[in-house]
Predict the structure.
Amino acid sequence: MRQACVPSSIRRGLAPKSNFPVPLFSKSLEYEMEKKLIVYYSRTGTARQVAEQMAAQSGWQLAEVTDEHPRAGFLGDARCVIETVFHARAKYRYEGPPLDEIEHVIVIAPIWMGHLASPMRDFLADQLLGSTHLSVICVMAARGAFRAVEEIMRITATIPAPVLALFQRDVLSGLSQEEMAGFIDQVKTAGRWEQSRQRAAWLSPTEA
């Protein structure tokens, strides 16, 4: 029996070359993971738990804002009060990629005395976000998330979306899992919509 002629590229396990452009959605997942970044600050570890769980579920990159000096004990509490009430500048470090390389930043931060935690506040104030899309998760003991989002809007001149407020007790007990999953879906949906606006002309039916 005569064997069928099989191209050498297939025999070597390679896909044959095509003269047609590769559709943009073929790398959409990889693109989404590269262009989204979770930036978090956490003093007690609760916001860190949210950030790590979200990174594990979504595959997005993770970056951290940390204190230049520890906030342990009474002196640490006093610094939190002074920086929050009197708007004293917080000394922080940032461990992550430059934000100007990121298209969508997800900010996760705690609420201190009804305000955004000062290290994240001053970190955002130092950034030039430009056209970067912003989403926010606030972790609070009882209240303050709406005020914190207003502070972020004022600092960054950006309207964040989506926005999620989580109670610390729900994070520690695991009750916030469903809310976090819904937040991830909203961020992904927003990303797909933005990507569809920027797709090539040959993919758009209005150009046919």
Strands lie at 36-41, 61-67, 92-95, 104-112, 115-116, 133-140, 163-167.
